[in-house]
TrEMBL record:
The keyword ATP-binding does not apply. InterPro entries: QVR-like (IPR031424), Sleep_regulator (IPR050975). It is a lipid-anchor; GPI-anchor. This is Uncharacterized protein LOC108567003. Keywords: Glycoprotein, GPI-anchor, Lipoprotein, Membrane, Signal, Transmembrane, Transmembrane helix. Residues 1-20 form the signal peptide. It comes from the Eukaryota. It is found in: Membrane. The keyword Membrane applies. It comes from Nicrophorus vespilloides.
Length: 134
């Protein structure tokens, strides 16, 4: 009995319904794009990605000059960086800019702070524990 509950829970986590993922799609030049929350499902910037096999991406670029200004872009990604694990980031710095780009695979995950995968795992395990002991 417990095994079947665990199996159903794991399957529910692993399989999507087939619909496209929704990602925040905006730039820090857009009003309100700087401080998006993951639960902001009413945001005008949370939009469905066109097509399939998309994921969310957030890129933060700091231009190195006398002003050191930062640009944040949130978008749908389609060219996966295969060197990264899921929900990972990479840094690309040179003498002109500092760039951090993160990819993630959950709805609205490219909000103001990309969640730590260990936090997501802990939350899932806590929900599973509560479900099995209810």
């Amino acid at each position: 009995m417990v095994f079947s509950k665990v199996l159903i829970f794991i399957l529910a986590l692993c399989f999507s319904t087939g619909s496209a993922i929704k990602c925040f799609q905006c730039s820090s030049r857009d009003e309100g794009c700087d401080n998006l929350l993951s639960n902001d499902t009413q945001s005008v910037y949370l939009k469905e990605c066109e097509g399939k096999d998309f994921f969310c991406r957030k890129t933060v670029q700091t231009i190195v000059d006398s002003n050191m200004f930062t640009i944040i872009n949130r978008e749908c990604g389609w060219s996966l960086n295969r060197k990264l694990r899921t929900n990972s980031c990479y840094q690309n710095d040179d003498e002109f800019k500092h760039e951090k780009s993160c990819q993630c695979f959950e709805e609205g995950c490219n909000h103001s702070s990309i969640p730590n995968p260990s936090t997501t795992l802990f939350t899932s395990l806590l929900i599973l524990y509560l479900y099995l002991n209810h």
